[in-house]
DNA sequence: GGGGAGGGTTTGATTTTCCAACCCTTCCGG
DNA sequence: CCGGAAGGGTTGGAAAATCAAACCCTCCCC
């Protein structure tokens, strides 16, 4: 689902071209939870079976999932996240946190993820260099490739 | 674009229902960069004008963007991120980082974001409680609402 | 040999997207 | 006063993606 003629070279656009189609990130959610079987995915995501099959093919081709046999005779499969797939989990957690805060004021969370430190996970995006939480006003964009023309206050 | 019958109550699914449609997150990318005018968005994202208009309406309705007049006579508009919109920027940065690492091995990045600490931003998702980087093996899911049946190794 | 689980594919109707063309207002130049 | 051009969309019809339900195949169990 690449933005058909995105004139900007952009890793965000490229990433979304792989995992931005409807259901793809929900597939990853389920697979990260260990629910990697076809009918589990159908039930838990609520996607049409044909679409789901297409997404799974795409994610496997992209190296985000692998298809494993968990039983010969009868032959049965399971999808699992590759390393690249697991590294998308922080994106999911960050999105979950946003949804928890903005879409469920007061409603109680449908799921809580516990971190190994013993606390409920509240993901925070920080800067690798200084450790500070990332906020918009601390960021400045520096285009490195043609196609980028900035005009706003974030421009460099 | 809600997963039409997602049986799971889930903040990830809900968030994607708002911003998961094609182009929506790219709109947010541009708006965060300060490129909030309709024809800038068309050019920079490469989306059809009608689709873009629909996305903008939706994002404004959802409280993620606002439509501001930046010139009366001739009347001209500009879209800006609300606080809720700005708080999605960490999601974009995390996704950008994933794309930079997995989709551009060796190709040189099309854009670098500088953090106010003086270094190029490399976003890291950490746990608010302990500060450690979030990794899959440190997470355990705890369903709080019906609809959640876990079977895998992540299950609680 | 009937039925169910698992993992899909096929078919046809319904929605979305896409693209090009068009519209409207206001400013500008001649 | 007339003809653009910029900005911000809307409209119409063709093309593509999605949806739901039905179907298929293999193997297992009774």
TrEMBL record, chains A, B:
<dbReference type="InterPro" id="IPR036390">
    <property type="entry name" value="WH_DNA-bd_sf"/>
</dbReference>
<keyword id="KW-0805">Transcription regulation</keyword>
<feature type="domain" description="HTH hxlR-type">
    <location>
        <begin position="10"/>
        <end position="107"/>
    </location>
</feature>
<dbReference type="InterPro" id="IPR002577">
    <property type="entry name" value="HTH_HxlR"/>
</dbReference>
<dbReference type="InterPro" id="IPR036388">
    <property type="entry name" value="WH-like_DNA-bd_sf"/>
</dbReference>
<keyword id="KW-0804">Transcription</keyword>
<protein>
    <submittedName>
        <fullName>HxlR family transcriptional regulator</fullName>
    </submittedName>
</protein>
<dbReference type="GO" id="GO:0003677">
    <property type="term" value="F:DNA binding"/>
</dbReference>
<dbReference type="Pfam" id="PF01638">
    <property type="entry name" value="HxlR"/>
</dbReference>
<keyword id="KW-0238">DNA-binding</keyword>
């Amino acid at each position: 689902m690449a933005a058909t003629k995105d004139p900007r070279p952009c890793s965000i656009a490229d990433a979304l071209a792989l995992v931005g189609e409807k259901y793809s990130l929900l597939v990853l959610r389920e697979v990260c939870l260990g629910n990697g079987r076809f009918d589990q995915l159908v039930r838990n995501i609520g996607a049409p079976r044909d679409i789901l099959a297409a997404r799974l093919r795409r994610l496997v081709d992209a190296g985000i999932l692998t298809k494993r046999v968990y039983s010969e005779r009868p032959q049965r499969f399971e999808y699992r996240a590759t390393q690249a797939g697991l590294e998308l989990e922080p994106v999911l957690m960050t999105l979950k946190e946003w949804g928890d805060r903005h879409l469920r004021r007061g409603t109680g969370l449908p799921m809580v993820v516990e971190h190994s430190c013993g606390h409920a996970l509240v993901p925070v995006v920080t800067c690798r260099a200084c450790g500070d939480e990332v906020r918009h006003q601390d960021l400045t964009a520096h285009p490195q490739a043609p196609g980028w023309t900035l005009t706003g206050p974030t421009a460099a």
